[in-house]
Structures are given as C-alpha cells and as structure tokens.
Amino acid sequence: MESESEAKVDGETASDSESRAESAPLPVSADDTPEVLNRALSNLSSRWKNWWVRGILTLAMIAFFFIIIYLGPMVLMIIVMCVQIKCFHEIITIGYNVYHSYDLPWFRTLSWYFLLCVNYFFYGETVTDYFFTLVQREEPLRILSKYHRFISFTLYLIGFCMFVLSLVKKHYRLQFYMFGWTHVTLLIVVTQSHLVIHNLFEGMIWFIVPISCVICNDIMAYMFGFFFGRTPLIKLSPKKTWEGFIGGFFATVVFGLLLSYVMSGYRCFVCPVEYNNDTNSFTVDCEPSDLFRLQEYNIPGVIQSVIGWKTVRMYPFQIHSIALSTFASLIGPFGGFFASGFKRAFKIKDFANTIPGHGGIMDRFDCQYLMATFVNVYIASFIRGPNPSKLIQQFLTLRPDQQLHIFNTLRSHLIDKGMLTSTTEDK
Amino acid sequence: MLELRHRGSCPGPRETESLPHREGEAAGGDHETESTSDKETDIDDRYGDLDSRTDSDIPEIPPSSDRTPEILKKALSGLSSRWKNWWIRGILTLTMISLFFLIIYMGSFMLMLLVLGIQVKCFHEIITIGYRVYHSYDLPWFRTLSWYFLLCVNYFFYGETVADYFATFVQREEQLQFLIRYHRFISFALYLAGFCMFVLSLVKKHYRLQFYMFAWTHVTLLITVTQSHLVIQNLFEGMIWFLVPISSVICNDITAYLFGFFFGRTPLIKLSPKKTWEGFIGGFFSTVVFGFIAAYVLSKYQYFVCPVEYRSDVNSFVTECEPSELFQLQTYSLPPFLKAVLRQERVSLYPFQIHSIALSTFASLIGPFGGFFASGFKRAFKIKDFANTIPGHGGIMDRFDCQYLMATFVHVYITSFIRGPNPSKVLQQLLVLQPEQQLNIYKTLKTHLIEKGILQPALKV
Fold first, then answer.
1. CB distance B188–A377 less than 8 Å?
2. Do A160 and B200 touch (CB under 8 A)?
3. Is there a contact between A46 and A2 (Cβ–Cβ < 8 Å)?
4. Contacts with B48 from chain A: Cβ below 8 Å
5. Which one of A98, A167, A378 has the shortest CB-CB distance to B271?
6. Subcellular location, in the record's words (chain A) (predicted)?
7. Quick check: helix, strand or coil at residue B265?
8. Contact between chains at B45 and A173 (C-beta distance less than 8 A)
9. Mean pLDDT per 10-residue run, chain A (427 residues)?
C-alpha cells in the first residue's frame, strides 16, 4: 500500500513492533486515489508518485479553501459544520472498529442523536445572539430561544434515558465504552467547531489567519525537516525533527505577519459578520476598529541597527498575529502528537481514507484542534469584552428593580469617566 | 439507591461463597438479590464478551473489607443477618440525615465546602475504579495528571461563577482583579500545560491504556465537577433550591424502597431487578406530597429563601432580603374537582410549592434513571459498590447517583422559568466594555426603561 510508505508524516513501521506483538492492526481501507491520478503518475517511482499525489491534493485543498472564503461567511459556516460531522463520524467509526460494536442495539442512532442535541444546544446559545432581530420577529423562534436551555436539556435527557433503557445484558461494558467514547468525541469535535464559528463571526480574519498559520506550520516544518532535518523531536513521531520545528516556527511567524498585513486592508475580512435584517443575508460592512488601522511603531534599538528604519507602519493586529503564529507553531503540534498517539494506541494508520495521500479529515485537522480554542480565549481575554447585544438581551429579562439598579450604576460609572454629564441627560 | 445487600454472617471476601446460600433465601418470596444477577452477568460476559483481549480476563474487583464499626457489630450481634443489615443501613441513614441537618444549620459556606468535599471524593472513587479496571495504577504521571485536571477544571468553574458573587470583595484586591480579568486565558493555559504533559508522558507500550485513562478522567470530570458547580449555583440562588431537590431525591429513594418492600410485585426494569412498579409509583406520589410540604415549611424562613450574598463589611455570607413573590403566600382558586374533594373554595399557597411539584416529579420519574445508569456501570465493570466508605451503603457515589441529573435539572429550571441572568454578572460585563459601547447601551436602556415606565423622564439626577 503506497499510503503506508513515507507518505504519512507520522506513520512509521519500526515503532509499531509493539503492535505486531499484540493483535493484528485494524484493516486498512482501500486506496482512494482517483484513477486519473494513478494513470498520470504511473511512470514515476512510488516515492515520487506519492509526493505528487500529496502535492496535488494539498494544492486542491488550498484552492478549495480560497473558493469558500470567496463565497462568504454562510458557506464557511456550512463547511465548518460538515467538517465537524465528518470528523465525528470518523472517530466514532474507529470506536466501532476497536470494540467490534457496530451492531450494538441502538448505538449508532444514539451517537448521531447526541451529536444533534449538542449541536442544537450550541447553535442556540451562540447563533441566536447574532440573529437577535430575526429571532425576536418570529414567534416560534422567540419561544425556542427563551426556553432554549430547558429544551436542549430535555432532548439530552431523552437520549440519556434511551441509553439506559437500551442496556443489554451481555454488552454493558461495551455500551458504556461507546457512551464514553461518544461524549469525549463530542467534547472535542463539537466544541472546537463552535468556537471556530464564534471566531468567524468576530471577523473572517480571525478565522483565516489562525487556520492558515497551522497549515503553513505543517508545510514549513515538513520542508525544513526534509531538507535540514537531523535531530528527532519526540519519540512519538520519529519523523519530526527539531530543525523542522524551529524552522517552521520562524517561517510561520513571518508568514503570519505578511498575511495579516495583506488581509487587514480589506473590510470584508476585518469587519464582524452581521446579519442584516433587511436584506436577509450576512454583511461585512463597518468602520474598521483600531486594531486594523495602520499605526506608527518605534522599532526597538536592537532591530533598528539591523533594518536601518526608525519607525515602521503596522497594523496592531499584526502584533496579535505573532501571538497566534507562535501558538500555532509551538503548541499546535501537540495536537498532532496527541492524534499520533491516538492512532498508535488504536493501531490505525489514518483516521479514514477520505483524502487520497492524506488520510481522513481528522488527519488534516488534528493540529487545528487546540488553535480554535486558543483564538477564542485570546479574543475574549485581550481583544474584546462581552457582546453588547447579548448584554442588552440579558438586561431586558431582568426584573425592573434590578434593571434600575444596573442602570443607575452604569450612569454613575459613565459620569465618573466623563462620558456623560448631568446636562447631556436632558437631550 | 437502596439495594439490600445480604452480607451474610461474615463480611469481606467470603461474600462470594455465600451466594448460593442467598439465592436460596431469595427464592423464599422476597426480592432477589442484586448479587445473584451479577453472577449471571459474570458468566454471560465471559462467554459473550466482545471486548478487547485484556478485559475478558479481568476478575471481579475484590470487594473491600467490611467497615462496619465494631460497636455496631457488637450491639447487633444477637440479631439474624438480615435484620442486622437492616439496622446498620437504618442507623447510617439516620446519621447521614442528621449530619445533613447539622451542616444546613452551620450555613451556606459549610454547605459549599461539603459539596466540594463530596465532589472530590466522587472523583476519587470513579478514578480508582478506572485504575483497577485497567490495572493502570502504575502508569507514569497518571495519578498526578488526573488530580491536576480536577484542579484546573475546578479553578475554571469557580472563577466563572463564584467570582460574580464575590464582586465587591474582588474589586478591592488588585491581584484578584487581574486573575478575574484574564481568567479564561489563565484557565486555558493551565489546562494546556496538563494536556502537553499528557502528550509528553505517552509511553510506548501503554498508549491505549493512557488514552483510556485520559478519556475516563475527562468523562468523570464532566459528570462530577459540572454537577457540583451547578449545585453550588443553585445554592446561591437560595438554600431552598438546594434543599428541596436533594431531599426529594432522598425521599424518593426511601419511599420507593418502602413501597417496594411492602407492596412490590411487578419488576420495573431488567437492569435493577429489585425495583418494582409499585415502588416507583408509590414513591412518586409520596415524593410529590413530601416536596409540597417541605416547600411549605421552608418557604417561611428568610434563611432558606433569600439568595446567598457575600457582604464585604461583615466578611461572611448573609441571607437577608425581601422574599420574592415566589415565597409570599397567595390565594389560588381551586379547580372544580379539587373543590369537591377538599370542600374548600380557595387555598393559600406559596407559588414555590407549585414549582416544587415539578421538582419532585423530576426527582421521582427521571432521577431513578441516574440510578439505573450507575447500576449498569457497576454491572459493566463488575463491581458491587463504588467504594466502601459508608458501611452498609457503599461509596459516596452510590448515595449520589440519583442526584446526578437533579442538579442540572434544577439549574436549567431556574434559568428558564424563575429568573433571568445574574444581575451582578451583567453589571460586571457592562463595566468591562469600551466606553462608546457603554454609552450606546446606556441610551438603549434609558429608552427602554422610560418606555416601560420604570424610569421617569423628569427625574434625571
């Protein structure tokens, strides 16, 4: 199988000796390379052929990425949703294979049901804030939104009770394992995808730059490792090297800086995604915030001597992009190691065989795993505070005396800050 | 969940020997013992176990030694084994209930500590089961990592919720302000450190085990830590929201057992052969009545009804307030059929009592599913009890398995039907916004309040 040769950045047969000593590995799915490619490359040696297959697929995926960005936020959201479902499916299928539990009563239904419940809960919590005006208009949506937590909890409870009722005498342990497996998978896959969508609503740049940094780090670390690699990085993935790691780090930081410079110029990337009531679609139109306005920075003495400039004009966002790239290069790979370890533990080469030469969707997204959470936490901590429209929404549900209390506190706060004077009140 | 465990005359490992003896006893018309069905499960599992190769060989986890205190044993040595067990369980039940009352008397802070203590013990019990199931007690780093993750998740939750209540206290201290402002980032960094340590600790021969324990830890955290934090949030809402649900579950346990004992005939579910429909339905009605009465009694006292607040001047928790409408007597006209039964036109009730019916209904109908879940779990991993902390009852987790879903339900119920979001949290978030945003919000709020007549346009200062 060609896919078993050096194609996999992490896969190698030497350290699989432990697995050979134990039960046989799970059967590898058939090679999915399209016939077209197979014929075109039939003359080259297997090693180069694999290189070409991977290369072509990489370019295809990147081109696909650009197209989707062009199509707009709605399509991006749908793509994220699909990727999430596919990842969930891949991991659950591995669980089935590991436990030979494909025929457990009810279990496939229950797994997908839980996926639906958790997605419903998250979409309800986050997306309704952004669609606030639309939700208020439609009566059924308003009720769904008001009692959202209760409805989600009820749906989940139904699934839970179905699980308990489906416990079959001989299969208790298996069923509990699959229950645990499903929940951990949901925790990983669904939360990440929702954080990605949160980031997307903040502005498409917060979606594109992190993901591109991770992809760039993957590719750069591979290149540097290929040309200069010597010292192994971690026993878990013998093909990673320190040279690749460090080279990838610097390359990614530079790439992040350049990319943010290019993107910060365009409103469609920089503005928060809003749902326009009148046109019933998403718009990205706004006055760019301070983060995306060119500012002069004094270069510290050290770099001044090197570059010979006194000041430089940058977007403040580029400074944040350094933080994002650093995370992508230093901690992102741990997501990859985690997935490597997971594949070793369950003796699989790839999560699935969806993408020829690359493996499953999960293989491509394992490093992204932690990135989405980091970006979300970063934005929440350093960039913006809470969402104003959500606050207003919450305020409106409080009791009148509470509302008055908050209003008065806010008023004295604003007066203190000089934003309000007693006379402006009269307007 | 009450299960009659015939421990026989001798405690400990000889339990398995006396199984045939108990089978004979059970055939005498009483409910069959759980242990008998466990044995059947064992045999079936060995033949039909489709698990990975390591698991089919796992022997049943040896039960820990009996921890009944000596004095109880001596006092009851005269009675037959069945009644002795009854007495032990009864005495321990009363002890636990009195302990509960004592802690309620001592106040909210002690209750919070109690909840925290129980959470840690439940976590410990479930993790220990995981170690035994996977023979993974000696995995490098793993014990440290499990406790580290527990700490991280607790830190995150306490920071998110409790900090709101201590807003005045927090504003005073500079370091605490910093911790609050960057709370999510700090929690995430702590969790990441644990995650990276896990990845670095993966050892060649033990990958699968380590992943299993990682997943086991996370699922346990999901179960125990989230529940305990929801319990504490309910507690802050007012001690009555903590007491009535928990008491309803306990009452349901006890009354379902009693009804089953006296009238039980039709089995309820194959998973727990000792549960009966009579017990289930009888327990339901008694719990609703009990909840109704308990709500009536507790609603009178400010101590139970008021939200718990932290007063910085007194540096302690205070429960003093004007009771909300929920806790003020109102007269309701009875629907016609009840009028005929009770021969009264109206009745004076606290509105909270109506809510208590919903809570009791949940406790009786859905709460037991938490118990069945724990039963299934114990069958799956071939253990009798989660641990042996409480003599006659098993581990802490055994007592709290039915409470599992109750805390979440009460929290969801409160947020959906009783109150909106937490006002102090809304205020805190408002103060963090940019000044222009604050001004915008201020204008919106002002318009809204004037519209609603809450704010008079004339009174400006």
1. yes
2. no
3. yes
4. 170-171
5. A167
6. Membrane
7. coil
8. yes
9. 34 34 40 58 66 80 81 82 88 80 74 92 77 70 81 91 85 84 88 86 87 89 85 82 90 92 83 71 74 79 73 84 92 86 81 69 76 88 69 72 77 75 53
- Which chain A positions have a beta carbon within 8 Å of B45's beta carbon? 170, 172-173
Q: Do A165 and B188 touch (CB under 8 A)?
A: no
Question: B162: closest CA among B101, B98, B108?
Answer: B108
**ipTM of this model?**
0.78
Cα–Cα separations (whole angstroms), residue B447 to A302, B444, B457: 55, 5, 10
Q: In the structure encoding, which two tokens stand for residue B127, read together?
A: 């993790």
Amino acid found at B248: S
Contact A200, A376 (CB under 8 A): no
CB neighbours of A119 closer than 8 A, spacing ≥ 6?
A81, A84, A190
d(CA A51, CA A33) in angstroms, rounded, equals 13
**For residue B302, what are its two tokens?**
């400010």
CB-side neighbour CA atoms (13 Å) of B407: 22
pTM higher than the cut 0.80: no
What are the counts of helices (DSSP H) followed by strands (DSSP E) for chain B?
21, 6
**B143 φ/ψ angles, rounded to the nearest 5 degrees:** -65, -45
What are the sequence ranges of the domains in chain B? 66-106, 108-139+203-420, 423-456
CA distance linking residue B143 with residue B194, whole number of Å: 12
Contact present, A238 and A232 (Cβ < 8 Å)? yes
Which residue type is seen at B246? I
